[in-house]
Amino acid sequence: MRYYVLDRGDSLSVDLTEQFHKLAGEHGFELDAESPEIVVSIGGDGTMLHAFHTFIDRIPSIAFVGIHTGHLGFYADWKADEIPELIKLMSGQGGPEAPKPRIVNYPLLDLEIVKKSGTTSYVCLNEFTLKSVDGTIVAQVDINDELFEMFRGDGICVSTPSGSTAYNKSLGGAMMHPTVEALQIAEIASINNRVFRTMGSPLVLPKHHHCDIYSRKEQNLMLTIDHINLPIHDLLSVRCQVARQKISFVRYRPFPFWQRVRNAFLD
Ligand code: NAP
Fold first, then answer.
1. Are 104 and 247 in contact (CB under 8 A)?
2. Which of 126, 164, 224, 228 most suits a substitution to test ligand 1, by most atoms within 8 Å of the C-beta?
3. Is 145 helix (H, G, I), strand (E, B) or coil?
4. Active-site residue 45, yes or no?
5. Is 3.40.630.10 the CATH number for 107-245?
6. Which H helix or E strand runs over 65?
7. Pocket test for ligand 1, best of 167, 184, 230 (most atoms within 8 A of CB)
8. What is the tens place of the pLDDT at every residue in 184-206?
9. What is the CATH number of domain 2-101+252-265?
């Protein structure tokens, strides 16, 4: 098996990476930074975002596994002291009782960012946000090529289902099961009064719909794509839609989503 490991850089995560390499070597795994079949993220959900973007050009041929070194994550299901067990299952030596590994696929968000200076495409695992740098943003939101609203406020967040527990949740968006093929639009501090009006509640679009956000004044903006910040002064529009490709996670044991939600936010 060809594998690669990315860690958060703190001492525990670095130590675990060393432990992983040692055990992986003993089980005949091959370290491969160019074309791994499995990418292991050691750290938190933020580390998985880095792993995803590091291998953004190889997403269809990779399955990700997350080991968390802090609190239980949404993308990381293995604990720091479980690496020997994980390696056993990865090498097929889990014994007759071990459940068969399963691949789960989560939808991603496709972006086409059109600037005066050119067009660029991106894929997000968590979300895309459009935020003001120096004052209220003015943006026209179209859904399926029809004017939906003229937005004024601090910004707009468009999240994937698996990103719905991240920034989207802080904005009052709904938590969605990560396999639902949809995107969610949430407002960041919209202005609503007798003159300016927005919907004021999060919207969920199915995979065959798209939304376009048009910049409607000269404005300095910050676009975020997961953990990546892109300052931009010449934005024309952003098209958002559910991506054709999905991210794959390999599950060597069950990892029920609603249990994770409960552990993360209630327990
Ligand atoms: P960060 O500011 O260091 O971490 C943000 C927090 O979001 C961390 O606790 C991270 O968990 C958690 N997180 C990431 N993905 C998640 C998910 N899918 N579900 C639940 N929690 C999640 O930034 P970062 O580590 O570079 O991560 C960038 C992400 O931060 C963005 O994609 C955005 O979702 C989130 N963010 C949230 C807010 C907000 O809620 N107000 C504001 C800005 C950005 P770990 O500790 O396990 O890494």
1. no
2. 126
3. coil
4. yes
5. no
6. strand 63-68
7. 167
8. 999 999 999 999 999 999 999 99
9. 3.40.50.10330
